[in-house]
Amino acid sequence: MVIYFKKSDEETTKTLLEHIFASALKRNIRDIVLPSTLGNVAKLAFETVPSSLRLVIVTHSVGFKKPDHDEFDPQVRKMYYGSRHAILTATHLFRGLDGAFYKSSGGTYPPQIFATALRLFGQGTKVAIEIAMMAADSGLVSVNDWIISAGGTGHGIDTAYILKTCHSSDLGTFKFGELLGIPSTLELTDS
């Protein structure tokens, strides 16, 4: 079942997390990859995740907003320390060295083209794909297993997919399984 959301907020995040966890349990999927900039999604997920599931939280890199600054809540990071879950703080796949050249001298580079294409399906889709590959590249999820990866549009999560991710060097092996939730701006009227 696909859930369509009209907004991205805490209520949407809670609803989608419930759907993600239920879908994972139903399909025997173990790993859930979630974005969390400040720690809000990570905290809510940690407090509600079933014991058979494992969370991989992907944060912004240190220096994402300003030099040497880590936006992620250190108290939430402590919650995860020593648990079965993982937190990944690393350079974002679509924002690495190419992103620095784009920022400083303009121009278009392949990672930005790919990210822009994914955003056609929503910002959350771009995030979900990006963090799934980051988790694979860091060895936190296997490219051989179905996982659930989520993304958002700025205030929590509003998009989620079941997928088999890939390493960033092997994009041809990436597989979509199922869409679980996504924002919709469609407004239907009775004819």
From TrEMBL:
InterPro entries: Pyrv_Knase_C_sf. This is Pyruvate kinase C-terminal domain-containing protein.
